[in-house]
Amino acid sequence: MAVSPFSIVAADTPEAQSALAGLTARYPIVPAAEARRLVVLGGDGFMLETLRTTLDRDVAVYGMNLGSVGFLMNEFEPAGLAERLEAAQRVDIHPLLMQARTVAGRTVEAVAINDVSLLRETHQTAKLRILIDGVERLAELACDGALVATPAGSTAYNLSAQGPIVPIGARLLALTPISAFRPRRWRGALLPDTATVTVEILEPAKRPVSAVADSTEVRDVATVTVRQAADMTLSLLFDPEHNLEERILREQFLP
Question: What is the reported pTM?
Answer without folding.
Answer: 0.82
